[in-house]
Design brief:
Length: about 500
């Protein structure tokens, strides 16, 4: 592609695609499973260890070594399939042959024509349903590090390989080409990550490579049923990169077609710093890998009893948990509350909100405090006892603590625990009587005659001046809502 069209692609990235064109996207998500050991051997499945220390003859493919299937990996794969509404099927393993140095034995054990999970679906929060073609088991490859200024192979002085990751169990989840926008792709990946974490199958840490995404992207004229030529963008390791890569690639392909050139089917790399995709190699097809049945592994056929135990042990998925929180709000949520619900479920704080609401706290208050103040406390917030959280919200809801005071007590609760009422007393937070509050408000109004005149003339924004001054004068003991009410009373 010429420099002019590359520039056009960069300029168009991030904007909506041309209305004459429809984008078609399918995602392949690779997730490492949270097992203790690798897929076919007893080496530790651990991130960050000294390179090439978690290896053995099996994962290095040395002569005479034989793979033994990890039962925990099979169970985690079935959890993923169950959560994605897949059929769990008898499956077989195959050898996928290739000659890159990230796999010492020159082949990868994967599942080809008979995957363990197939024919599923995933519903996005906005209602779109994306088909899941398959979610199959395979072993991960080693990690290559290209040493050079750019970190890419074409400018490397040499390469280093760490085989610790080689043989780590993976599930590859392949979607149908049902995704139409970068925003939908991000929503799919985000929802899928939440499901993987909820099942306990993976920690979903994209920054550590536990979840990696390949995006297959093509464009076609609006109204056409024929697919365009697709390009695959490899190893996207953040939702931001996924969105940016799709937007750039769509613009690049449209610019090529508009210039009368053909889109080549190829594998491309996303350069985050440059904000563009770059060609890596021509796209491989299945016959390039010369698949054949793995001779050292028998077919895998989990019986109905095992499948039943897996399904029975799984808790509610993120969509179900979001629905439960929405029910606590009366069955409907504002746009802001919907965002709070998603944040609370993603952090695993929905149990805290449900417990507080069950104890009598207003559900909107419990949701807001969990999504904002509790979440801001990090690990300490995640460990906050439900009983303490509920007791604190009861104090706030009764008026014994102002919202500002309640937030300060919550911070102390997260830091050192204890009884909310006792902490509030220790911090000098006592409810300000109505008479005392009225006196303080009157003093503040008298001290700000110009602002008071503006307030009398209908400038509601200036009320913040009075609320802030009262809070300062009372050292945070006043309730902002009651201050506002007193201001309205004085205005008449």
């Amino acid at each position: 592609m010429s420099a002019d069209r590359e520039s056009a692609g960069r300029e168009n990235a991030g904007r909506e695609a041309d209305t004459e064109w429809e984008t078609v996207i399918g995602l392949e998500v690779h997730t490492e499973l949270a097992t203790q050991t690798k897929l076919f051997c007893g080496c530790p499945n651990a991130f960050g260890d000294e390179p090439n220390t978690n290896v053995c003859p099996v994962c290095l493919g040395l002569p005479g070594s034989l793979p033994v299937l990890n039962a925990q990996a099979v169970e985690l794969a079935m959890r993923i399939g169950t959560a994605l509404h897949c059929e769990i099927l008898p499956s077989t393993f195959a050898r996928k042959n290739y000659f890159y140095p990230d796999q010492a034995k020159d082949y990868q054990i994967s599942q080809y024509d008979e995957p363990i999970n197939a024919n599923g679906w995933l519903a996005l929060p906005e209602g779109t349903v994306v088909g899941v073609t398959r979610a199959h088991l395979e072993e991960d490859t080693g990690k290559l590090t290209h040493v050079g200024a750019s970190g890419r192979i074409n400018a490397a002085h040499h390469a280093l390989v760490d085989y610790n990751r080689s043989g780590v169990p993976l599930v590859e989840i392949v979607s149908e080409p049902d995704i139409r926008t970068a925003a939908q792709a991000r929503a799919y990946a985000s929802e899928l990550r939440a499901i993987l974490v909820a099942t306990g199958a993976s920690d979903g840490r994209m920054e550590e490579g536990s979840m990696r995404i390949d995006a297959n992207i093509s464009v076609r004229p609006v109204g056409s049923s024929e697919f365009g030529t697709r390009c695959e963008i490899k190893n996207l390791n953040s939702l931001r990169s996924l969105g940016r890569a799709i937007e750039y690639e769509v613009s690049r392909q449209i610019a090529l077609i508009d210039a009368g050139e053909a889109v080549r089917q190829e594998t491309r790399h996303w350069d985050e710093a440059a904000g563009r995709t770059e060609s890596m190699r021509s796209k491989e097809e299945a016959n390039d890998y010369r698949y054949f049945p793995e001779p050292d592994l028998v077919p895998l056929a989990p019986d109905a009893a095992w499948q039943g135990r897996v399904g029975a042990a799984m808790g509610p998925m993120p969509a179900d948990r979001r629905a439960l929180l929405a029910d606590l709000l009366g069955g409907s949520a504002s746009e802001a509350q919907a965002e709070q619900i998603r944040a609370v479920v993603d952090l695993g704080l929905d149990g805290l909100v449900s417990a507080a609401a069950g104890a009598g706290a207003p559900a909107p208050l419990a949701l807001a405090r969990a999504a904002n103040e509790v979440a801001a406390e990090g690990e300490a917030g995640l460990a906050l006892p439900a009983e303490s959280f509920s007791a604190l919200l009861a104090l706030e809801a009764s008026g014994a603590l102002s919202p500002t005071q309640s937030k300060a007590v919550l911070h102390e609760l997260a830091a050192r625990g204890g009884d909310p009422a006792a902490l509030a007393k220790e911090m000098g937070f006592e409810a300000l009587g109505a008479d005392s509050l009225a006196a303080v408000v009157a003093e503040v109004v008298a001290a700000h005659p110009d602002e008071w005149q503006r307030y009398l003339e209908g400038d509601e924004k200036v009320s913040g001046v009075f609320v802030g001054a009262v809070m300062k004068a009372t050292k945070g003991q006043a309730d902002g809502a009651k201050v506002a009410a007193e201001l309205r009373r004085l205005r008449g």
